[in-house]
Amino acid sequence: MIKRVNKNTYSGFTLIEVLVSSVLLTFLMISVVLFLRRGRHIETRDLRRRTARHIIENQFEKRYNYIKYNEFAPGYHDNQDTTINNITYRCSTAIQSLNISSDSNVQINGLEITANVSWYTPTDTGKLELTKCIADIQ
Fold it and tell me: pTM for the whole thing?
């Protein structure tokens, strides 16, 4: 027996199905692109913060080595620009005296070193501040 094919049956997708799937695919692609851009922004910001942290640690190390020889007095303030990968990082370092005494006749004398690093780019602006203390407990 031979089966007759009806002329009114069509196979394939309707126009509305194609339009809906195109819209869904477009939204999916846009969200993936936005997710990737956000991830790249976070990665770039983290790289700049790590670079700023590295600059601050170098400043602390420099100041700590000089403080051992009493070359920096409390009240010292310094500004320095460093350019890395076409980005200028401005580092500001300040040294203040630190004197703490307690009721139990313990006296702490030392220095407090504060370093700020800031950077400005067309897409990102940031600032990082760290403080360290060098103390002599008596």
Answer: 0.65
CA 123 → CA 6, 17, 42, 58, 138, distances in Å? 63, 41, 12, 26, 50
The pLDDT-based confidence of 107 (bands split at 50, 70, 90) is confident
> How much is the mean pLDDT over the chain?
81
Q: Comparing 24 with 111, which gets the higher pLDDT? A: 24
Please answer whether residues 111 and 93 qualify as being in contact, where contact means their C-beta atoms are separated by less than 8 angstroms.
no
Q: What's the angle, vertex CA 133, arms to CA 54 and CA 80, rounded to 5?
A: 40
Q: Which has the closest alpha carbon to 99: 63, 71, 135?
A: 135
Count CA within 13 A, CB hemisphere, residue 103. 0
